[in-house]
Amino acid sequence: METEVGNAIKPTGFSLPVENVQQLASRNLQEIPNRYIRPELITHEVSVNESSQIPVIDMSKLVAGNPGYDTEMSKLHQACREWGFFQLTNHGAAVEIETMKAAAQEFFKLPLEQKMVYAQLPNTNLEGYGQAFVVSDDQKLDWSDMFILYTLPITARNLSFWPNNPTSFRSSLEEYSCKLHRICASLYELMAKNLRADFKEFMDMHQDMVQAIRMNYYPPCSQADKVVGFTPHSDGSQLTLLVQVDEVEGLQIRHNGKWVPVKPLPGAIIVNIGDALEIMSNGEYRSIEHRAVVNPEKERMSIAAFHTPDFAATIGPLSNLVKENGAKYKTVKYADYVKMYLNSSRNGKSLLDNLFRFLLKTCNNLASKSLKDIPYRYIQPESKTHEVSVNESLQIPVIDMSKLTSGNIGYQSEMSKLHQACKDWGFFQLINHGVATEIENMKTVAQDFFNLPLEEKMLYAQLPNTSIEGYGQAHVISDDQKLDWSDLFLIFTLPVYARNMNFWPNNPNISDGSQLSLLIQANEVEGLQIRNNGKWIPVKPLPGAIIVNIGDMMELGLEQYLSMDTNVTYTINHVDVLLPVENVQHLASKKLEAVPHRYIQSEIRTDKVSVQESSQVPVIDMSKLATGSSEHQTEMSKLHQAGKDWGFFQLINHGARTGIENMKVAVQEFFKLPLEEKMVYAQLPGGLEGYGQSFVFSDDQTLDWNDMLFIYAQPISARNMRFWPNNPTSFRSTLEEYSRELHRICISLYTMMAMNLGVEFAKFANMYQECVQAIRMNYYPPCSSADKVIGFAPHSDGTLLTLLVQVNEVQGLQIRKNDKWIPIQPLPGAIIVNIGDIMEMMTNGKYRSIEHRAVVNSLKERLSIAAFHLPSTEAKIGPLPDLVKENAAKYKTMKYEDYLKMFLGSRLNGKSMLDNVRISN
Question: Whole-model pTM?
Fold first, then answer.
């Protein structure tokens, strides 16, 4: 699977979970587990004498005009050609390297349970804490743990994997990443000159530079001569920049058939050429095979920064390097190379040699190996012993769909045949169905898919412990179960909201759990058999026919119809999963005569609505709140009164008009996308972030008439870029600007409110710590029964402040004051501000959170954007000390995380959540 992240694509080279090696080593085992024993890898000759010959390049001399420039350029060229490896000194990154080394050491010292917070996710990509390149359950393992992070481009970052313990880790990694990126870009330019290549062509070939940083931990091992820290391999990168964290040696490179130990110079960066650069240089520069060995007494750590082309880039020999000798390597999409690289076990430079040198070899699957003996788990002779009745094949019913049209001469007769087929057989072939063209197209598509190399099909592999959707096998529920000799590719297609577009590009003696199964024979090879009267009957598909069989659900619903056991034979040599809630925008597009019962909430709409009071809603002019303004005091007083009496106001002249208008356009474009494109950003089970609905906790819960896209925007470390749409193309940059502008406004309002409350801003800020911002884009489709549904149930926000923007002219927001609902008529360009529960708690009730709801229009859609500003989850919230001197605390002091769990884990119901933390008199 590939996941789109900005301009970068992270290829999903996944690694099977195995035991943490650091933890394993801490047990002081007498015997090393067999999977780690690999003495054959340590038997090759090691040449210690050649260590001193490894090239050293002084980067300070590689500046044009420097007296030693030409000599150093020649040394660099020779190092890349003969070694593919060198140590780089005087690079200007000494401070950043030392800081990063300290951060890596602190991370690996953390208890295992803290490191596991950042563990790799199954079957996604290698990012996170774990191991790399474990592709089978019986594979030999390396004696190491690793922690890999995508760092560049910034859009590729998944900050949920970036540790905030140690506290300096993120800032250290940011600085380290930037410095190494600069060094790498300089080396590219110098190498292009040495190769006499067009630097623009060189840069165009790799497009946006991608950087991934892997921190390696090699525990000591008492049997170090029997294990290997990292299997011999070459890197799939252009350049890898490695830093030795401690003084323990372990890196070895292969040169002239011997292993040469590398003795890192103090402060040096170790640079090695990767496969991608060997391809681009047409073999003039060599990627280097290397390995890591283990010390019997001391741990070893290193940090490798891989610099690669953008995964969408096409790489091949540079044009000026093939004029004399012709191309030695294929031109390929870099993503294709990386997919194979990440999904294969390491074996020197075999991947580069076997796959991308001319001629290209193909991959084999199990059946293509011409095995003498079929693996035991597939042997099921007992299933083939039942009687097979070939004679009865001709009796299988055939139904002509063209005759099933009311008024047709053969209608009654064909209807009777259909009825009989369902009763007696549970199975029939359907002809003249009117979809012959579509069937032929689909047959071609299916054949093409199964003809793909295995690694391409595996991009759509089933995810573990979720559902059977994807490419793989079905109904495998134990490790010793007998297996079918088949693969399948299963996709949920309808309703549209159930589709998982990540998966888009047969069974033993069981009946289908569907109502009807429609089967198409894709080629001429027979194999389907049905069980009738205790005998297996081979099915001979009619040309172009659809084979229909009754499923269990149809038999249960209509007891007189039979579900049919099916069996497939072969020719020789040939969780709890969260149920999705239907997308409301899609539901509304069906123009239903009656709204589904789960959306009916007419009782919510019976309260009194006071249109007259709309004009009384406070309006605050932010330009007048500036200190020194002649109207500062008056506007400050209005702001204070709005917080006390209303908990709500409209803010004008805020200076963010352009950012708001751009964001409104981006949101409208997003909700106009086809459903399948929006579903790319769908919420994950159990998560709120992404596209979907909120606060749905049960299958029988009444639902709101809206869809939403929810994204964490601040702090930057909280962002998960997989949920940030890149369609429309301007969405991310627009959201970035919008987030920044509203954050600025929010901080200004906090400052003004603290002044009005007579509280030091520092105390106010300390209470909420790092400001968190989450942005929710709301879409309320029109509804013909608008008086019976609710767009958003009445609630108050669990925030400090919420800043809301009305996207279009359709009204719908209402606030509750004095037991009446007051419709809000947004002023052009205004930001609607409402006080949240946390602000009410912090001000000890002096400022009020406002209960509000959204109603639906019968004819027009409505869109809005809400920016929630919250304390850090680690912050303690409660009345500010200065505000409880005269009046006792009215609210409990608690961790915001605890409040948030209650808020997000319960059905919205007015201000009931705030009532739960009120202190009783």
Answer: 0.46
